[in-house]
Design goal:
By secondary structure, the protein is α/β, with parallel strands linked by helices. The chain folds into 2 domains: 189 residues, P-loop containing nucleotide triphosphate hydrolases (Rossmann fold, 3-Layer(aba) Sandwich), CATH 3.40.50; 205 residues, RecF/RecN/SMC, N-terminal domain (Glutathione S-transferase Yfyf (Class Pi), Chain A, domain 2, Up-down Bundle), CATH 1.20.1050. 40% of the residues lie in helices and 22% in strands. It is built from 11 helices and 15 strands. A 6-stranded antiparallel sheet has the order 2-1-4-5-6-7, with helices on one face. The protein is globular. Keywords: ATP-binding, Cytoplasm, DNA damage, DNA repair, DNA replication, DNA-binding, Nucleotide-binding, SOS response. The RecF protein is involved in DNA metabolism; it is required for DNA replication and normal SOS inducibility. RecF binds preferentially to single-stranded, linear DNA. It also seems to bind ATP.
Length: 404
């Protein structure tokens, strides 16, 4: 799979942009703040229905405009399709595939990409929310139906929290909340499906993360990846109450996971009423990353954290490559090579060179190995510059500041 044409209208700093793309590697070069990342952000949005930089869509619409358009032509063997997304400053976004309306959340069904950006350092050093989002985005890319499951689960959590707040305000006894039992059933049904999907995904990722880390870092470090789940934490070990213990040992069995989920909800009911918040479920879980037996979040150096985050994304691409019927995902590397020494640059080039399409951004072209610079697109002030035009980097552009 590869992108053959990208059109932007009123997206970020682009009034309009048209870019022809080919299989292989394309390098976007330009000073920081010119619009390189905006181009690849638009491509990434169509595969995940989210931005890797902002949590709301309003920032994606050019100042003074009410909507933005992202239109992309994608090719897989002999089949071509056109995807279009209208991002509205107010109101719901609208999506089309081959001029037929589709739900926005269905876009990942038609196109897959994996994007690595400096923001992804938070996967290693940041809060659990970012790691959960990483897993869930990949779950949806592997099986788009989970977009609906995750949306429904989040709605159930909100409704359940509202009921818990009302119960706390009314001082109702825990055994009188029959309505809460109904929400519990739905919470367990949806949450179990998500936890099992995450478990299966991590099993696929684990060996690929280890391989990718060594490929990039060139070091004999041992990486560990596991899920810390709220249904397993502080699990009772007495013979009469064993479901959570069993769940920890059989994370992929939905029957065991659902039983553990229900038992944990029952045991935490009093705490949930006191705090008026749902304390059990995949929204409270974390992806635990270890390096040489120690938590990467607290012990990995900057270089090790950078390599670990990059390994997570390369492993994601490998998982999608195995799963996808449409071929390789498009691999996108945003301002990555400037952070790497020469050895790691070359090893990264070795790891990505055989993907069908790789898109790279850089402030300074020479930061990128020469074999990845065959096709170069220069960007300046929200416009595509002619290939023979000179776009000289400002002093420190290779390492100073975020691109856009």
């Amino acid at each position: 799979m590869h992108v053959t044409h990208l059109t932007l209208v009123d997206f970020r700093n682009y009034a309009r942009a048209d870019v022809e793309l080919s299989p292989g590697t394309t390098l976007f070069v330009g000073r920081n703040g010119q619009g390189k990342t905006n181009l690849i952000e638009a491509i990434g949005y169509l595969s995940t229905v989210s931005s890797h930089r902002v949590s709301t869509d309003q920032a994606l619409v050019r100042a003074g405009q009410e909507s933005a358009i992202v239109r992309m032509r994608v090719q897989h063997e002999e089949r071509a399709l056109v995807m279009e997304l209208q991002l509205n400053r107010t109101g719901a976004n609208k999506a089309q595939v081959n001029r037929g309306a589709v739900r926005t959340r269905e876009l990942p069904r038609y196109f897959a990409s994996v994007l690595f950006a400096p923001e992804d350092l938070s996967l290693v050093r940041g809060e659990p929310f970012g790691r959960r989002a990483y897993l869930d985005a990949l779950v949806v890319q592997r099986s788009p139906r989970f977009a609906g499951i995750i949306s429904d689960y989040e709605r159930v959590v909100r409704q359940r929290n509202s009921l818990l707040k009302s119960a706390r305000a009314s001082r109702l006894p825990a055994d009188s909340l029959t309505t809460l039992d109904v929400w519990d059933d739905r919470l367990v049904e949806l949450g179990t499906a998500l936890m099992v999907a995450r478990h299966e995904l991590v099993e696929q990722l684990r060996p690929r993360i280890s391989q990718a880390y060594r490929a990039v870092a060139g070091d004999e470090h041992d990486t560990g990846v596991s899920i810390q789940r709220s249904i397993d934490a502080d699990a009772p070990t007495d013979a009469a109450t064993t479901a959570p213990v069993e769940a920890a040992e059989a994370g992929g069995d939905p029957v065991i996971v659902a039983a553990a989920f229900r038992e944990r909800l029952a045991s935490r009911r009093r705490d949930e009423l006191d705090r008026a918040v749902t304390l059990v479920g995949p929204h409270r879980d974390d992806l635990v990353l270890d390096l040489n037996g120690l938590p990467a979040r607290g012990y990995a150096s900057h270089g090790e954290s950078w390599s670990f985050a990059l390994a997570l994304k390369l492993a994601s691409a490998e998982v999608l490559r195995v799963d996808a019927v449409a071929g390789d995902p498009v691999l996108v590397l945003d301002d990555v090579f400037a952070e790497l020494d020469e050895g790691r640059r070359e090893r990264l080039a070795d790891a990505i060179v055989d993907y069908e399409q790789v898109l790279i951004t850089a402030a300074v072209g020479r930061d990128v190995p020469e074999r990845l610079r065959a096709t170069t697109v220069r960007i300046a002030a929200g416009a595509i510059v002619e290939p023979d035009a000179e776009v000289a980097p400002t002093e420190g552009a290779a390492h100073g500041g975020r691109d856009e």
